[in-house]
Amino acid sequence: MPNLRFSGRIAFLSLSLLTGLLWILDIMTGSVHIPLKEIFRILSGSESESVAWQYIILKIRVPKALTALLAGAALAVSGLQMQTLFRNPLASPSELGITSGATLGIGALVLTGGLGAIGPDTFRQLGIGSSWLAIVMATLGSGLVFSLLLLIARKVTDNVILLIAGVMIGTLTLSLTSIWQYQSQPEQLQAFIIWTFGSLGGVTGPQLGIFTLVLVAGLLGAFALSKTLNTLLLGEHYARSMGLSIRRSRFLILLSTCLLTGTVTAFCGPIGFIGIAVPHLARSLMGTSNHLKLVPACALTGAILLLLCDILTQLPGSQSALPVNVVTALIGAPVVLWIIIKMNNLGSSFS
Amino acid sequence: MLTARHLTTGYLRKSQDAQRILEDIDLELIPGQLTALLGPNGSGKSTLIRTLAGLQPPLAGEVLLQNKPIASWPAASLASQLGLILSERKTAANLSVMEVVALGRTPYTGWLGNLQARDRQRIEEALEQAGITPLRDRKVGQLSDGEMQKVMLARVLAQETPLILMDEPMAHLDLLNRIELLNLLRQLTREWKKGILFSSHDLDLALQLTDSIWLLDKEGTLLAGIPEDLVLSGAIEKSYTRDGLGFDNRTGSLLLPSPAPKGTVSLTGTDTFWTRKALERHGFQITATQTDCRIEVMVTGSRFSWRLIRNDRVQQLSSIAALLRELSRS
């Protein structure tokens, strides 16, 4: 198969190049225009002619672009893991309520007084301890929803019913979150609403370090699970007959997915559509279901898509920016519709 | 060797008593033997196979693999002893044939599943044995049912297990593919000393090609033996008799309900086998003595023709269909 391998390499090379290109482009866009030459000079560590530019690039745009890159990769890979585990083309963190689980975890943290209010700047204002706490709570929250889903998935095999169950659990957790919202101060509420719009700009300084550490670990974990995910493609009975410990695999996949989704949700808000759309894009792009190729391809495609969305939040010629969730929905919803209409494609991933 | 002692299969239910399907059966699956599991729909073939494979717990009794309870085997070492082909057809259409077969090496590959030289060699051999080497780069979504079944077989061969259990491997296959598959299974038991159990509805083929048969009936009993013994003891006849359908112990084939009698004809000629079959199926009785209605089968070269003589009227016919049409016109 030298041909196949060759085309695979070309695909990876172009995806990586595109990721790098969009990353630079994301740094270039913003309300303040900074010349490209200056950007490269600042990125390479030299002094810039403007201190303000240097501050904007290093303290705002680079962290934001890095966050977009990592969050996109994380959400896409957790979507892929969920789709394979549930053998359901419509499974993804936001569709099955994992994201709302993370929201609940954060809400519980705020309610018990661990955080003042959740908002784009929460973690910037608070210390490192609170970001670890937020990661743990969000991961626990999403883990709770995920475990419930696994229990339900044992009883029902129908994809659509599982999806409805996921939506119900999502609604349930959101209503629990609403109880907290109802008892909050107006300022807290406003901060929460802004948080739900999704923001990639709130992760800076030491938080960015923690964010990067956890997500890279989660992504590497997901890649290490490639063999397990591949074996699960033939269904759990076959996977077991080929020597896979189903309980252990489920737990590891749950852990990796919840760590990725929980962390992204805690820091950036509930970002939708990347998790459901990217695995399908990556599958048709790579023409394979082999997770050794799909996990990296999903990570790159997810990064590309979220970088692109972040670039588009900055409306050309405008000083104001759209929330990132609005843009992912604008791009993601048509992709999901396209997947559903092209039912052949949807059915063929898992049949 | 896989043995079952006092095995009761079925499903536990919370609200009522457990649903027992097979009760207190003893079984032995021996390497080097091809065994067919026969029985009507709903007699518990799949449940038995899943129980033997350790996918579902027995209600009573035990399943032993090399004298150790199957539940006590770690998943990874069990996978090197017992291979499985299930009736569920779950695949990912995007996987290539090669990738699916390579999954059979799962128990032997490292944590990322990278294939070593030995794995590649076994995969090639498995593709070769299943006769699907030309399909290796095709996507499994594009394959026919028969081809897909061979891919699943190659996968289980790549797994290198001494024992293989198959649930309905021949469902969806046409006759030639079924014979081909059974022959292949037989060869595997002969040359590689594998012990293979497959469930099937194909009585004729099972009688001709297997070393032993496990026969289930609706009452939840299981009879095991070599095909000929089961025929002579009347066990097959008993389980395959229902409402005018039956099993002919003499010819070893299934009997269909006989049609309403239409009359007696005499049949002469050199090669009357198929003409006789057609006439009998339409309810005509055949005698050797002279009757009012005579049929002569004539062969010139490889061409057949029929002469129908009724009440001294002679007709020349060129096909059995025409002959039957004439006969029913009277």
Order of helices and strands of chain B: EEEHEEHEHHHEHEHEEHHEEEHEEEEH
Strand order of the largest sheet of chain B: 6-7-8-3-9-10
Number of strands of chain B: 17
Main pleated-sheet profile of chain A: none
Structural commentary:
- The complex is a heterodimer of chains A (351) and B (330).
- Chain A is an all-alpha fold and 351 residues long.
- Chain A has 16 helices and no strands.
- Chain B is an alpha/beta fold and 330 residues long.
- Chain B has helices at 45-52, 75-78, 97-103, 117-129, 145-158, 175-191, 203-209, 227-232, 235-239, 273-281, 320-329; strands spanning 2-11, 19-29, 34-38, 60-65, 68-69, 82-85, 163-166, 195-200, 212-216, 222-225, 246-248, 253-255, 263-269, 284-287, 293-300, 303-310, 313-317.
- Chain B has a six-stranded mixed sheet, sandwiched between helices. Chain B has a five-stranded mixed sheet with strand order 14-13-15-16-17, covered by helices on one side.
- In chain B, 36% of the residues are buried.
- At the A-B interface, α10 and α11 of A face α2, β6 and α3 of B.
Task: Spell out the blueprint of helices and strands.
The complex is a heterodimer of chains A (351) and B (330).
Chain A: H1 2-28, H2 36-43, H3 51-86, H4 98-111, H5 122-125, H6 128-155, H7 159-182, H8 186-196, H9 205-224, H10 226-232, H11 236-241, H12 246-268, H13 274-286, H14 291-313, H15 324-341, H16 343-349
Helix pairs in contact in A: 1-3, 1-14, 2-3, 3-9, 3-12, 3-13, 3-14, 4-6, 4-7, 4-12, 6-7, 6-12, 9-12, 13-14, 13-15, 14-15
Chain B: E1 2-11, E2 19-29, E3 34-38, H1 45-52, E4 60-65, E5 68-69, H2 75-78, E6 82-85, H3 97-103, H4 117-129, H5 145-158, E7 163-166, H6 175-191, E8 195-200, H7 203-209, E9 212-216, E10 222-225, H8 227-232, H9 235-239, E11 246-248, E12 253-255, E13 263-269, H10 273-281, E14 284-287, E15 293-300, E16 303-310, E17 313-317, H11 320-329
Parallel strand pairs in B: 3-8, 3-9, 6-7, 7-8, 13-14, 13-15
Antiparallel strand pairs in B: 1-2, 1-4, 4-5, 9-10, 11-12, 15-16, 16-17
